[in-house]
Amino acid sequence: MREPPALEARDVRKRFGPVEALRGLSLTVRAGEIYGLLGPNGSGKTTFIRCLAGLVRPDAGELHVLGSAPGAAVAAGRVGYMTQAAALYGELSVDENLRFFAALQGLTDAPRRIDEVLRTIDLTDRRRSVVGTLSGGMRQRVSLAAALLHHPKLLLLDEPTVGIDPALRRDFWEHFRALAAHGVTILVSSHVMDEAARCDRLGLIRDGRVLAEGTSAELVGRAGTPDLESAFLALAEH
Amino acid sequence: MDPHRIRAVARRIAAQFRRDRRTLGLLIGAPILILSLVGALWGSTTSQRTRVLVVSPIAGVPPVLAERLVQGLRSSSGMDVSTGAADDGRQLLEGGSVDAVVSARLGPTNSVEVAIEIEGSDALRNGSTLQLIQQGVLRALGTTSGAPPVQVTYLHGGSDYSLLDYLAPLLIGLFAFFFTFLLSTVSFLRERTSGTLERLMATPLRRGELVLGYLAGFSLFALIQAAVIIAFTVLVLRVKYTGNVGAIFLIEAMLVIVSVALGLFISAFARTELQAVQFIPVVLLPQVFLSGLLVPIDQLPDVLRPIAVVLPLTYSNEALRAVMIRGFALTDPLILKDLAALAAFGAVTIAGAVASIRREVA
Lengths: 238, 362
Description:
The complex is a heterodimer.
Chain A: E1 7-16, E2 19-29, E3 34-38, H1 45-52, E4 60-65, H2 70-75, E5 79-82, H3 94-104, H4 110-120, H5 136-148, E6 154-158, H6 166-181, E7 185-190, H7 193-196, E8 201-206, E9 209-214, H8 216-223, H9 228-237
Parallel strand pairs in A: 3-7, 3-8, 5-6, 6-7
Antiparallel strand pairs in A: 1-2, 1-4, 8-9
Helix pairs in contact in A: 3-5, 8-9
Chain B: H1 3-19, H2 21-42, E1 50-55, H3 63-74, E2 79-84, H4 86-95, E3 100-106, E4 112-118, H5 123-141, E5 150-154, H6 163-193, H7 196-201, H8 207-236, H9 245-266, H10 273-290, H11 305-309, H12 312-324, H13 333-356
Parallel strand pairs in B: 1-2, 1-3, 4-5
Antiparallel strand pairs in B: 3-4
Helix pairs in contact in B: 2-10, 3-5, 6-8, 6-9, 6-10, 6-12, 8-9, 8-13, 9-12, 9-13, 12-13
């Protein structure tokens, strides 16, 4: 028996003044997979993720997050959201930041869970450091930790690996893979093609619409191109 | 020095200004707003009259003299003169329905002595009241040898009150309001611009919870600040006060809560910290001009009085002055009315702050 999809979008539309950010975006993310939202800057990736996080209400279309409305899934603490910029409190320590987010999610065993998450992201020794003094990559790791604390069933990651070095990027993808193995569904946006190959399935998005959906092999095959980057360009120009 | 490069810098700044419409608007609009207020405030004459009660009849004083006193005072254009018994006078003075009570008696040499008792809690009003009455007395009973002897007493305050004693109740309110407002505006703006607000809204945290949490967190420090301001005013500056320190603190506490909530709300209208800072004079200066600090509320021109009614400092000033100078208790109807007004401001600004946090999905 197949599990119901973790995420379902049908013809989602959103307009900001003169700009039509989403023009009938439809996609389905299966439970437990890593789904890559791949597209150029300004294609609507962030707007779509903000819709899923309950921050933006679509003008039209249907949106189901873990079987309910986005706002309800967020309120139930089932969604983890990592924004593009590491949105943390620079004056506070790593520990204080994480304790704050743990409290908002109503975690009862916060100290133990924070230990656990810090070990995952390998920042246990910086626990007492003030976030403002950390490097960009470390901050990004803390930001991921904050999104993971409450064991979300769905992780929304908006370009999580922008501006971090290749070694850390590899570590991040190992974390994502491990989370997916534990049944967490991950929606990750990116405009870096080499990350796309690591996703279970991909949605190529452009001008607020999904151009093509499938595994990276399927997309390459459909386009008849040697690699994903040229496949994306070929599909986009169709 | 290359004029081209200088011009390039100047043009870039002009271009940035053109883009930042809000800053441009505030740069031009704020002074016009403030100047209109000042113009209306000091550019027109007040319609408010000084209310005087003349004690009459007065035992021992020939009725004709008392009548002359009343007539003399009535001939002055700025005064409303009524007559009544001495006991009524004290009561009306305490209730604030007359500004001064005038009585006369016969002195040892059978000459008339005039006694003036002034309400006295507002230094701005005392001078003009006294001057008007003295002119009237001179007209009524003056002789070639000059004015009759006049004895002036004050119900509240008095000649041993310095200007600081009169202004301290208003200044402690103003300072607490200003610093709390500044701090809460800029910190909440930072929450909005740094992306943390977005992150918070993607957790189970509700908007109302966020605003109340901010209020609790900021109010703690604002209350410490209020306590320090009051202690410094009373202990170091030795400002005279007759009321209860606890009552002063409670009024300050209500005011700073309004101030924090207003700061959260106003931060929604700024996109940068620079813009937020420019909002401060727009919010603060009208309150400096219109809340009774510079001109008593009832002496404001008619066009400005409705504005004073919607400023929180108007109520905290009235309450703080009543407690500190007039020695009113917290349970006095006047104080209760002011506290209720501050509570209403708190409710409205909190609701405004919650509404200003955008989360389009409930």
